[in-house]
Amino acid sequence: MITKEIRVYRDLMGANEEWAGKTRTLLTEKGVLMLNLIGSPGAGKTALLEGLSSYLGSKDSFAVLEGDVATTRDAERIQALGVPVSQLLSGGSCHLEAKMVYHALMDMDLDALDLVFVENVGNMVCPAEFDVGEHAKVAVLSIAEGDDKPLKYPLLFREAKAVVLTKTDLLPYVPFDIDASRRYIWQIHAGIPIFEVSALHDRGLSDLSSWIHEGSA
Amino acid sequence: MITKEIRVYRDLMGANEEWAGKTRTLLTEKGVLMLNLIGSPGAGKTALLEGLSSYLGSKDSFAVLEGDVATTRDAERIQALGVPVSQLLSGGSCHLEAKMVYHALMDMDLDALDLVFVENVGNMVCPAEFDVGEHAKVAVLSIAEGDDKPLKYPLLFREAKAVVLTKTDLLPYVPFDIDASRRYIWQIHAGIPIFEVSALHDRGLSDLSSWIHEGSA
Asked: Whole domain around residue A137: which residue ranges?
C-alpha cells in the first residue's frame, strides 16, 4: 500500500488575515482602538503623530508602532514625546504584516492604553493591501504630493476610513487644488471624512483628534 | 516502469532578470539609453520630465514609458509636449516589471530614439528591487519629503546612479537641511551625483540634462 502525504502550505495572505483577526479581537476585548496610518515617504505621518500628541490626552494612554524599512529615527522622535513606542523594521519589505504587529502589541501594556497608532512603511501602494488588525486605515496625503494622487493610487483611498491632507501650510507655494482633491477623493470613496492639517503650524489637529476619539471606530 | 515528470517553475525574479537583460542588449544595439526614474508618489517625476523636455533636443529623439497603478494622467501630460509616450498600467502592482517594459519598447520606433525614460510607479521601496533593463536608475526625492529619506529607504539610493532633489523652490518653507541630505545620500552611496532642481521654476535642469547625455551611461 502506498500512502500519500500531502503538505499544505497556506498562502501568506491567508495567514496574515488570521493574525489580523486575532489582533482585532484582542484589542476590542481590551478596549483599545488601533489606527493604521498609510502614506508616501515624507507625507508627514510622524509629524502628524507629534502634533496630535498634545490633543490625545495622557501621554501614556496611547502608543505608536513605527514601521520602517530601516533605522529607528521615527521611533526616536515619538519616544522624545514620552509616548510608548516600538519600532517594527520590515527588513526591506514595503509594508507591515499582521504577525509582527501582533507580537509588538503583546509586549505592550494594553490594559493601560486606549489607542494605538501603527505608522506603516512609507508607501501608498502595498500597505493598503494588508490588514494588520487595525480598526481603521487612515490615508495621509501631503499637499506637496499633488491633488491627483487619490485617482492614481485608488486602493488606499477606497480602504481608508478617513483622509488627512497634511502640510496645508504649503498651499500658497504648490499647485494643489483643494476642491479638486476633495472631488477626486470622493470619486473614489464617497463621503469619506477629509481633515486638512498642518502639524508644523498646529492647524486642524483638534478636529482630527475628535474624530479619532468619537468617529473612527 | 514509472516515469517521473518534473515541472520546473522558474522564480519570477529570475524571469524578470532575463527580460531585463534582453531589453538592455536590444537598447545597446540600437544606441538607445534608458533611465529608470524612481521616487515616491508626488516626488515630481512627471514635472521633471516636462521640465527636462526643453533641454533634451528634438522632441522625437526621446520617449517616455509611464508606469502607474491606475489612470493615464501622467502619459497625457507627456503627450501634450509632443513626446512619444506609452502608459504601462501595473494593475495594482507596486512596481514595473521588465517583461512589460520590453513589450512597450518593441512597439516604439527605437531607430528614431536616443533616450527612453521609464517613470516607475510612485514608490520608493519596491521599484528599487526590479531591474527593468535600464542603463541607470535615478532616485527622485522631493524637498518636501524630508532630508532623512535616504537613510530610511537606503536600497534606492544604493542602486541609483544619480539623485535628483526636486522642488527646491520649497526650501524656504519646509524643514529640509540640504547639507544633511547630501551627507545622508553619500553615507549610503559615496560620491553619487546629486542634482538640485526646481522643474516649476526651471532651475538645475541644464546640469541634469548634461549628465544624462554625457555622464549617465
From this structure: 12-207
| Cross-chain residue pair A71–B152, CB shorter than 8 Å | yes
Q: For residue B166, give the CATH number of its domain.
A: 3.40.50.300
Q: Where are the beta strands (DSSP E) in A30-98?
A: 33-38, 62-68, 85-89
SS3 category, B90: coil
Span B7-42, pLDDT tens digits: 555 556 688 999 999 999 999 999 999 999 999 999
Kindly state whether residue A214 falls inside one of the protein's structural domains.
no
- Looking at beta carbons, which residues of chain A come within 8 Å of B151? 70-71, 73
- How many separate domains does chain B show? 1
Of B40, B74, B126, the CB nearest to A41: B40
Rounded to a whole number of angstroms, the CA Rg of chain B reads: 18
Which of B69, B92, B149 has the CB atom closest to A42's CB atom?
B149
Establish whether this prediction's ipTM goes over 0.85.
Answer: yes
- Residue B78 maps to a domain: yes
| Other Cβ atoms within 10 Å of A215 Cβ, number | 11
Assigned domain for B7 exists: no
Grid coordinates standing for A196? 486638512
